[in-house]
Amino acid sequence: MRKVAVVGCGPIGLTTACMIQEKLHNVQVIIYTENESPNTTGDISAGFWTPVYTENTPIEHVMRWSRRTLKHLIELWKSGKANETGLSLVPVLMLSEEPNFSVPEWSKIAIGYTELSPEDIQTYCVEFQKNFKGGFTYISFTWEPSIFLPYLKKKFLEKGGIVVHKRIDDINQLSHFDVIVYCTGLDAKYLLHDEKLYPVRGQLQRVSAPWLFQVIFDSECYIIPNINCVILGGTKQKNDYETIIREDDKNNIVKRCTNLEPSLKESILIKDMVGLRPCRTETRLELEILNLNEKHLPIIYNYGHGGSGVTFSYGCAWEACDLVNDALNIINAKNKSKL
Ligand SMILES: Cc1cc2nc3c(=O)[nH]c(=O)nc-3n(C[C@H](O)[C@H](O)[C@H](O)COP(=O)(O)OP(=O)(O)OC[C@H]3O[C@@H](n4cnc5c(N)ncnc54)[C@H](O)[C@@H]3O)c2cc1C
Fold this sequence. Notes:
By secondary structure, the chain is of the alpha/beta class. It has helices at residues 11-23, 41-44, 59-78, 82-85, 118-128, 145-158, 188-191, 247-260, 309-338; strands spanning 2-7, 27-33, 87-96, 111-115, 134-143, 162-165, 179-182, 197-208, 215-217, 222-225, 230-233, 237-238, 268-280, 284-292, 295-303. It contains 9 helices and 15 strands.
């Protein structure tokens, strides 16, 4: 039996580990992780399916990964597993004050995407007292990591997976594996010395407002209902490593979201949270074969998903699993040629 190590237990690590178990035979998967849910960046996120902060990731990758995840979410929804996996179907209203507003490329794959007419925009300008230049509506999902991560972990363990709580600082700690898959988010910056990674700080607030079901975004803030709370956001501060709640940010978030949705004055604060989006000039999903102490060691990199880690998760896990399969075939061929 071949042994695969997955480093990381956030949305990317767990979806990847479960996918390898599901699609490949005769493979033992072991996750090594420093933290797990509820202490990953994923747990802070709203789990909202929409490709954002994808930097220079080629649009064809963005579309392929997002589409595959969306397809999976539709299947989960239809199978009746929405409740146990933290999945909600949500109507979305996106409004923009950007003078150069243009329709995003991913609109082609969003469900029920409809661009707002100039009359609709004018109505929202009056309603929200803002100067919107464009906007659109569509239907999406929120897939909450704080619910689906424990669900996936349980599934992973039931299928014979192993989770080891250990920080990995050096590849030599795992050199006895056949394949290593790095799903370490922002930490790859230090672990793999990847200078293309940087944080985009996101502060948000979780409140109780059970009457809200619609996602609303404008250029300054967003309101995203989750199952047991509503998320008010947020900041996007590049290269900012501060993980302490800032009062200024908190006040701005509350003010902007309440302007947009006045009923939020009656909401009850649950908690303020902050996390660092693992942004990279380009999301990294690739296979490299290292030569370590005369052993060919395939490494798969699956990190740097920015503000779209949940949106890309299933799609990237699918392709990472194909890369694991390729890597195992390459090793088999190399071993045969030695005989
Ligand atoms: C405020 C905010 C809101 C967001 N909202 C959304 C959203 O609505 N939709 C969306 O799609 N995305 C959203 N995101 C982005 C999303 O959270 C991330 O892209 C996602 O968490 C990345 O997943 P990951 O598994 O790569 O990293 P993480 O969630 O950071 O997990 C990394 C894992 O690797 C482990 N690890 C790291 N280094 C090591 C090491 N050396 N040894 C062992 N283990 C290690 C960690 O312990 C952890 O388990 C948001 C992010 C923030 C901050």
